[in-house]
Amino acid sequence: MADGPPDRDEAARRRMVSEQIRARGVRDEAVLAALAKVPRHEFVPGELHGSAYGDHPLPIGLGQTISQPYIVALMSEALAPRPSDRLLELGTGSGYQAAVLSMLVASVFTIEYHAALAEEAAARLSRLGYANVEVRAGDGWGGWPARAPFEAAIVTFAAPDVPAALVAQVRTGGRICIPVGQPQQVQQLMLYTKRADGALSSRMLGAVRFVPVQGERDGGAGRG
Ligand code: SAH
Predict the structure, then answer these.
(1) 218: helix, coil or strand?
(2) How does pLDDT run across 87-125, given as a tens digit for each residue?
(3) Side-chain half-sphere exposure of 7, counting CA atoms within 13 A
(4) CA angle 110, 97, 191 (to 5 degrees)
(5) 10-208: what fold?
(6) β-strands 187-194, 170-180: how paired?
(7) pLDDT confidence of 218, banded at 50, 70, 90?
(8) Is 67 one of the annotated active-site residues of the chain?
(9) Which of 156, 162, 184 maximizes ligand 1 atoms within 8 Å of its Cβ, making it the mutation to test the pocket?
């Protein structure tokens, strides 16, 4: 399945984890182990296999990207995943973030706007044996009511604000990690926690740059 010799990919992953992720302060050992395990080169287009473990996002088609490994790790850690959690992702893309999270929680439910990407990701995840991930094509802004409630939610595109549906579908004490801000600009990566009174407490994790939201919520500004 893998293109290159497996030991070469494994060594590249180990280097990625120590030099890009542990070195920047990610400490959750389960998260680090997941990043060391998931074959990121299987989630990028064939001609980019050689760059799969580099310190940057990569194009995956349709103007979308697979996030930088460090950002995947940072967001995974922020969600404080537990083995019994059910987790919602908006923005499946390649399926890489979903695969990483699937090693840390009971089930991942993930929604992708572009049907072609959703199909590809679903096929890839099942071929690689990530059986606890369910992929759906469509606009994720309304969440996934039929699969709610979730212990945590992650959004992997730039959103103008937090989708109300996510707040409704996450349990009390649940976490939402999401880049908030205008498309084509820098966003703030936010970690929200839903309090008992339903309000959100928030923490800023740093400046990031994600691809824009597609669909109903982009107001036409996100195309391109
Ligand atoms: N998590 C992905 C990164 C994907 S980039 C990975 O690991 O590869 C963000 C993705 O969000 C894109 O594929 C884009 O099509 C998708 N997206 C944008 N707006 C969306 C929306 N409203 N609902 C669902 N997916 C959306």
Answers:
(1) helix
(2) 999 999 999 999 999 999 999 999 999 999 999 999 999
(3) 0
(4) 85
(5) Rossmann fold (3.40.50)
(6) antiparallel
(7) confident
(8) yes
(9) 156
- Residue spans of the domains in the chain: they are 10-208
SS (H, E, C) 99-135: HHHHCCCCEEEEEECCHHHHHHHHHHHHHCCCCCEEE
Q: What is the 3-state secondary structure (H, E, C) of 161-188?
A: CCCHHHHHHEEEEEEEEEEECCCCCCEE
Residue with the nearest Cα to atom 4 of ligand 1?
Answer: 93
| In the block, residue with structure tokens 């996934």 | 144
Distance from the alpha carbon of residue 7 to the mean position of ligand 1, in angstroms: 31
Instruction: Give the H or E element holding residue 154.
Output: strand 150-155
Residue 100 alpha carbon, nearest atom of ligand 1: 7
CA separation (Å) from 133 to 8, 70, 80, 118, 201? 27, 22, 18, 12, 28
Cα separation, 7 vs 13, in Å, equals: 10
- How does pLDDT run across 140-195, given as a tens digit for each residue? 999 999 999 999 999 999 999 999 999 999 999 999 999 999 988 899 999 999 99
Amino acid (one-letter) located at 123 = A
Contact 62, 118 (CB under 8 A): no
